Amino acid sequence: MSQAVDEIKIGGLGASRKRVEDSRFIRGKGNYTDDIVLPGMLHMEILRSPLAHARIRSIDASKAWDIPGVQLVLTGDMMATRNLAWMPTLSYDTQAVLATDKVRFQGQEVACVIADDPYIAKDACEAIVVDYEPLPAIVNPIQAVADGAPVIRDDKENQPDNVIYNWEVGDSAGTDRAFADADLVSKLQLHYPRSHPSPIECCGSIADFNRATSKLTVYMTTQAPHIIRAAVAMVAELPEHMIRIISPDIGGGFGNKVPVYPGYVCSILASILLERPVKWIEDKSGNLISTGFARDIYLDGEVALRRDGKILGVRMHCDADHGAFFSDAQPSKFKIGLLHSAFAAYDIPAAHLTARGTYSNKAPGGVAYRCSFRVTEAMFFQERMIQAAADDLGMDQADFRRMNFVRDDQFPHRTPFGFLTDSGQYAKCLDVGLKAIDYEAFRREQAEARARGRLLGLGISTMTEPLGAGNSREYDILGIKMFDSADLKVHMTGKAIVRTGAKTQGQGHETTWAQIVAHELGIPAEDVVVEEGDTDTAPFGMGTYASRSTPVAGAAVAMVSRKIRAKCRKLAAHLLEVSEEDVEWELGRFYVRSAPDRGVTIQECAVAAYSNMPDGMEPGLENTAYYDPPNLTWPFAVYIVTVEVDPKSGVWDVLKMVAVDDCGVRINPMIVEGQIMGGLTEAYAMSNMQFITFDADGNCVGANYMDYLLPTAWETPGFELHSEVVTPCPHHPIGAKGIGECAAVGGPAAFVNAVMDALSGTGVRNIDMPLLPDRVWEAITYRRDVSGAPPVRSDD
Ligand code: CDP
């Protein structure tokens, strides 16, 4: 007699199942792009510009061609003969593949050498002579719009200046009225500096064009294989069905591996020309200096306040520095990404946001580093403005937030910039966090310490962010609607394979998608294998970024499992010789309603799908689901940090950090905790130690791992995680909300707010990240704000 299975025992929803992918990673058996070696494979290196802005007078590659082992030298002029010197970007702009007329940022791709081995290719790059005529460089938006500023994109028609877009959202007139009625207006200016996703594995590709079959196979480090396939089809003018993109194991993506990079295009063209596989593996300096940067955005923010603490309105103006090419991915409708998700957790009657994007002589920026299209900047600005507003009112930080939160009974709630949030228990999360940090006791301790000259501080960051783009009504990239997909095949033995349009880069999809199948069908998770990243086998999807995998592809896994279950119900009725209406489901088993002992397992149904199906039924047990979510998911989090700042050195230490994350139903609590730990670590690094910027000549300062520090277990503080608040997503099939980026999005403001709180009473309103000791020391010593905006002196 069959019985229902125990969900946790089979590794279903809520099981902290060990990550199955780790068994190959910890054995050193991962299969990364650079591990792949194809017969006859050549190697490509890129020559990059040493200057940020210069006209190219000439390129002489003759000496490179003469080096034995060199097979091909590509320059912009050669690319131009094939209409490939420029390519379209994911934001409706164009980007130079190899520079022809000018170089527009330090590190820009100027030429490529393809040779028998990577060392020959590198030597040959150094033999290429480029004659540059230097031009003045622009490294911030103020310079970009100044009178007489050189026009960076003089390649474009109708581009008389350096402005890419002006964009606005919200209620301008209503916001003006709110400010007219305000008792107090709190103002803050901030710069969220460039930061770099910096995955352990750099970008890379191996293009393999087979003239005999006309098929192009590209192994590459991409988070969005199907989007890349569409882009390659457009750029290289190859038919889509003749292109296969395979994204093998990826050593971290974090948004860095969404854009299309010139290296990919050059390796593809080289393979087509040479009819041999061509491998390009970016080096660390190349990655730090030239691939997708994040952030680099300036805020001018104002909050209109009533004396009792009620927020009446918010005004934000943001200047975004996109670098030389507007090439980061945005949903088409929103030029400044989802920056207008700011203040979604707060009940604010009126708000207005204006944004201006500008070109500069920097590598393309604005990439969403562990972030849904500028949500990180939105939450950082929001929480810094909230802290400043509470301080200006002389109100307690926690009380001010609680007073202005959207209440549990206000959902669904229209945010001041037009999003619809659907669920959350914001005040409860805050209470859990305050209790865990022992708020009142810390405030007493802080006052006592202050009396003895010690600077303690407490920073709160509360946030909700929109995860899981899209729905297709509102979200598309280059006209391709944002939805996702899952394909499930159950074999005759009841074992299964699930494929999705997402692409894991370390998030654990191989583990968690199997758990969703286990939850829906009762097939043990260990009997389900997960495969992603091959466009010839995976269903079409938009890839993994913006924490969209669980909200969209994860939902598709649940939906396709339900389609399989519906077919199995018919098979069960046939096997049990009753009508379908008389069949009931419990996990892993169908049974006859009037005789619960008579049942068949899901595995028995699988056998029947291939060997004993009813007359007229299509054999086999497989299906596909495309999932178009009705809304984004809105997880909520509270991060609270306590710090001590040393006034003599400006060094600050974290005393304690608590994190309360409500991401709805947790598929795998252990993986969720890992995601939060990783995000907090990155938030700590961004706020504390990651310095990468530009001097007045556009030189990238800090493009090395001595300045741009990657956090290790040594300096990273401990984090106390709380999971007691669970508000299921009302529209997701299993109630899950995204989690991957929450802590990296909400975390930075908690650290900065804590340091600023320690400095309260000194008149210092802001220190820009990273809060390096010299910046904190300068603020304390001279009692002034410290800006981190470029240009910096070259010796900083
Ligand atoms: O898109 P990405 O995978 O980066 O982010 P995500 O969808 O938030 O998921 C990150 C990891 O956490 C995946 O392995 C998810 O399945 C897992 N997760 C979970 O177990 N429960 C949730 N409610 C959300 C995510």
Features:
Aldehyde Oxidoreductase, domain 3, Aldehyde Oxidoreductase, domain 4, 796 residues, 5-stranded mixed sheet, globular, alpha+beta, 19 helices, binds cytidine-5'-diphosphate, 25% strand, 7-stranded mixed sheet
What can you tell me about this protein's structure?
There is one protein chain. 28% of the residues lie in helices and 25% in strands. The protein is an alpha+beta fold and 796 residues long. It has three domains: 22-28 and 484-627, Aldehyde oxidase/xanthine dehydrogenase, molybdopterin binding domain (Aldehyde Oxidoreductase, domain 4, 2-Layer Sandwich), CATH 3.30.365; 33-135 and 202-250 and 257-290, Aldehyde Oxidoreductase, domain 3 (Alpha-Beta Complex); 372-467 and 631-782, Aldehyde Oxidoreductase, domain 4. The chain has a seven-stranded mixed β-sheet, with helices on both faces. Strands 9-17-16-15-10 form a five-stranded mixed β-sheet, sandwiched between helices. A four-stranded mixed β-sheet has the order 20-30-31-34, with helices on both faces. Helix 14 runs parallel beside helix 15 (549-576), helix 15 (549-576) packs across helix 16 (602-611) and helix 17 (669-688) crosses helix 18. It is globular and about 85 Å long. The chain starts with 21 loop residues before the first helix and ends in a 14-residue tail after the last helix. The model has no long low-confidence stretch (mean pLDDT 96). It binds cytidine-5'-diphosphate. The site of cytidine-5'-diphosphate (CDP) has 24 residues, from helix 14, helix 15 and helix 17.
